[in-house]
């Protein structure tokens, strides 16, 4: 960024905080692109003045524990988190109290934070005095300290539900270079790599321990990791540049945890997925494969194909004539993305913002779930002006940087890949066929009967808990109370006799949608209370939510309960669910947003066109 742009950005942040409003999507996008730690630090200090009500920003509490002085880290982390759409409350721990804070979960005195970022430096693992001629003894010490850290994390897990986030460490040159034997120095490097591998493996111990690879990220970023003077003067082992790299690694995790990642990648063609302009050079003349720059475009296509294999929905947004595009995608021998790779296509000469909006409608997704990659600053600018919630990826400049530009912000990161994620692209292609099918019926109910809808209900298992937690994090429209139970909380409730956690799958004549709904229920002797219920927007409008309410009513009635109770808490984004409980036959009570269904009279609200199937499965403890 130029100095002028950075000055303008800081002015916009001051204006937003002064008005008590969060920065808009365009400003947040600029925050994510900051690579100058000084500007990111200034931004973080300004953003400290954000009001606790963040509007469209997602609240998150982040504790910070450190084996050293944290320095600018909270401000840099705040900048990164606001950039991704979060409203962070940062809670630094006391200096010098890292181990005791973990051992006693002192960070949870005011309730569990969502995440605790553990800022580690080499002082935790290396003794003050060590023998450069006895590397095996140093290896043993590293292993012992890693075991100590593992035990602290496990103890903390027993006392708190917060997710603990650790990171790998670069080996300081002052340590490695102090060993003059090349063989011994190599052995120390091996030991340090094993230490980092073991730190990453800590995430295997618990679903409430996560790890990021700071050492690897620093190797990919042109920043100086250490400032010896600051380290000696203030116990600051890392430069602000290195801390900004760590902040973005933590931001990517929080982004995924909060469900702020994107689902759709919309791509331009000319000078994006291939080099050259198709209308000028023809399919045979585009640059794709072979030597530079064609190999860069093919590398991008290979990366995009990998994203699709992991569940990212691909869309095509190109100003071109449809016929030559179809021919190029079908016939070019170096093409890795074929027409069937895309779940939605808009190849025409209309404005791309309108095309993105139309494709979002056809996919039943919000435009805020889109990432748009295009080489034209004009096209990106028009989309930014009309759809500021769309994440933009520039594809102009040297094509050698295309893959890095697409992946650097981690827009598609998820905590864990589920079976539904992997099948998502085909699910959305099926949706287009379903929409075409709906045009031949005289009424919506006639169409719904013809679909052959089937709802499968099952108690949560160890296999379905990750998908259920993912739904909680990412569902905004049909989210009745806004309570986002994460994976540890969902797993705990699923094995608690006082609760029921259920997953709901939907299929029809066009295919299986997978797990698209979930409910968290408190089971009382006389009253069952729905703590929250979420449903993917891609199955709204079919009565699935009513069938879920009907199934819950049947389960509660069978268990001997007389009342099923539900709540609705408006969020500003879940208006589509505002009348759900009354449509399901529930009656408002005197409690704010509380509704009740008398289970002693009448039938449940399951629509006649939905067949409900219940799977008698084991619970998540199995």
From TrEMBL:
InterPro entries: FkbH_domain, HAD-like_sf, HAD_sf, HAD_SF_ppase_IIIC, SGNH_hydro_sf. It comes from the Bacteria. This is HAD-IIIC family phosphatase. The lineage of its organism: Bacteria, Bacillati, Actinomycetota, Actinomycetes, Kitasatosporales.
């Amino acid at each position: 960024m130029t100095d002028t742009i950075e000055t303008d950005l800081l002015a916009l942040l001051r204006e937003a905080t002064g008005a008590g409003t969060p920065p808009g999507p365009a400003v947040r996008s600029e925050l994510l692109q900051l690579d100058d730690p000084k500007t990111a630090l200034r931004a973080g200090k300004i953003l400290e003045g954000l009001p606790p009500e963040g509007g469209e920003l997602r609240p998150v509490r982040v504790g910070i524990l450190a084996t050293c002085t944290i320095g600018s880290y909270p401000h840099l982390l705040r900048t990164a988190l606001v950039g991704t759409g979060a409203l962070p409350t940062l809670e630094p721990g006391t200096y010098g109290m890292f181990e005791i804070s973990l051992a006693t979960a002192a960070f949870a005195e005011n309730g569990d934070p969502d995440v605790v970022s553990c800022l580690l430096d080499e002082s935790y693992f290396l003794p003050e005095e060590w023998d450069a001629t006895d590397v095996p003894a140093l290896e043993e010490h590293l292993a012992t300290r890693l075991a100590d850290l593992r035990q602290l994390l496990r103890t903390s897990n027993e006392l708190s539900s917060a997710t603990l986030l650790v990171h790998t460490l670069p080996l300081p040159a002052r340590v490695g270079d102090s060993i003059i034997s090349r063989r011994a120095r190599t052995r120390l490097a091996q030991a340090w790599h094993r230490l980092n591998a073991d730190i990453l493996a800590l995430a295997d111990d618990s679903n409430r321990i996560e790890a990021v690879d700071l050492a690897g990220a620093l190797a990919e970023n042109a920043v100086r990791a250490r400032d010896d003077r600051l380290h000696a003067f203030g116990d600051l082992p890392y430069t602000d540049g290195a801390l900004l790299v760590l902040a973005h690694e933590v931001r990517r995790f929080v982004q995924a945890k909060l469900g702020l990642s994107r689902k759709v990648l919309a791509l331009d063609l000319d000078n994006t997925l291939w080099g050259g302009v198709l209308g000028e050079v023809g399919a045979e003349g585009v640059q794709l494969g072979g030597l530079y720059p064609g190999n860069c475009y093919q590398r991008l296509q290979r990366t995009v194909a990998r994203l699709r294999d992991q569940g990212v929905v691909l869309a095509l947004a190109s100003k071109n004539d449809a016929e030559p595009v179809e021919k190029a995608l079908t016939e070019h021998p170096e093409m890795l993305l074929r027409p069937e790779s895309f779940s939605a296509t808009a190849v025409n000469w209309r404005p791309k913002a309108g095309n993105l909006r139309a494709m979002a409608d056809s996919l039943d997704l919000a435009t805020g779930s889109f990432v748009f990659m295009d080489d034209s600053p004009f096209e990106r600018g028009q989309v930014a002006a009309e759809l500021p919630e769309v994440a933009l990826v520039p594809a102009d400049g040297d094509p050698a940087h295309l893959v890095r530009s697409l992946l650097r912000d981690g827009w598609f990161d998820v905590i864990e890949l589920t079976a539904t994620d992997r099948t998502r692209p085909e699910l959305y292609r099926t949706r287009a066929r379903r929409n075409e099918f709906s045009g031949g019926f005289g009424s919506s109910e006639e169409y719904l009967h013809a679909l052959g809808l089937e709802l499968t209900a099952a108690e949560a298992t160890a296999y379905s808990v990750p998908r259920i937690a993912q739904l909680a994090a990412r569902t905004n429209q049909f989210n009745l109370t806004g309570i986002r139970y994460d994976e540890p909380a969902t797993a705990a409730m699923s094995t608690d006799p006082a609760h029921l956690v259920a997953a709901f799958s939907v299929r029809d004549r066009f295919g299986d949608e997978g797990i698209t709904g979930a409910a968290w229920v408190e089971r009382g002797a006389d009253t069952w209370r729905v703590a929250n219920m979420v449903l993917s927007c891609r199955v709204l409008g079919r009565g699935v939510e009513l069938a879920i309410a009907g199934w819950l009513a049947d389960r509660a009635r069978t268990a001997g309960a007389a009342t099923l109770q539900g709540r609705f808490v408006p969020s500003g984004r879940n208006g589509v669910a505002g009348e759900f409980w009354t449509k399901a036959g529930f009656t408002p009570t005197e409690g704010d947003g509380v509704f009740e269904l008398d289970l002693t009279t009448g039938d449940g609200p399951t629509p006649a066109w939905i067949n409900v199937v219940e799977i008698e499965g084991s619970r998540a403890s199995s």
